């Protein structure tokens, strides 16, 4: 298991930007087929995978809801995962989770190790 800690959440107004960070306790093998993934869960909604990046490569995936506005990146030497969120919308208000997922999209993520989550609030 990998321990994950998110940071960088907070409250912003619509149209503003925010960057989330995630620190991993250990670095996955560079040969791993796993992904680092950001999820979010809004009130009354199911948890949604919004962005993933391959551990081994730089392949990325974005949910349609954030495509073109969010950018996922990694610095494995620093054991860090980032999510740059631009042009935030009120619908982006949610608890955001960093996760180490067994597989990469497309398809199911498989099992995952989870961070504790961090709140992002976007006001109109």
Uncertain segments: none
Major β-sheet annotation: 7 strands, mixed
**Coarse morphology:** globular
Helix amount: under 10%
Strand tally, please? 11
Strand content: over 45%
SS summary, helix count: 0
The SSE order reads EEEEEEEEEEE
What integer is the average pLDDT?
Answer: 94
Q: What Rg, in angstroms, do the CA atoms define?
A: 13 Å
Q: Assembly state here? A: single chain
Structural class: mainly beta
- First-residue to last-residue Cα separation: 39 Å
Topology overview:
Layout: E1 4-7, E2 10-13, E3 18-24, E4 35-41, E5 48-54, E6 60-62, E7 70-75, E8 80-85, E9 94-101, E10 112-114, E11 118-123
Parallel strand pairs: 2-11
Antiparallel strand pairs: 1-3, 3-8, 4-5, 4-9, 5-6, 7-8, 9-10, 9-11
Molecular structure report:
This protein is an all-beta fold and 124 residues long. The protein has no helices and 11 strands. A hairpin with a 5-residue loop joins strand 5 (48-54) and strand 6 (60-62).
């Amino acid at each position: 298991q990998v321990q994950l800690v998110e940071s960088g959440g907070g409250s912003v107004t619509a149209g503003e930007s925010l960057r989330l960070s995630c620190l991993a306790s250990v670095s996955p093998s560079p040969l791993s087929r796993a992904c680092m993934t950001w999820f979010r869960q809004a009130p009354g909604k199911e948890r949604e995978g919004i962005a993933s990046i391959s551990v081994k490569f730089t392949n990325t995936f974005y949910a349609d809801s954030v495509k073109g506005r969010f950018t996922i990146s990694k610095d494995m030497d620093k054991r860090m995962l980032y999510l740059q969120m631009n042009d935030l919308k009120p619908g982006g208000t949610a608890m955001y989770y960093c996760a180490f997922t067994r597989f990469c999209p497309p398809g199911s993520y498989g099992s995952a190790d989870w961070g504790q989550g961090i709140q992002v609030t976007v006001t109109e």
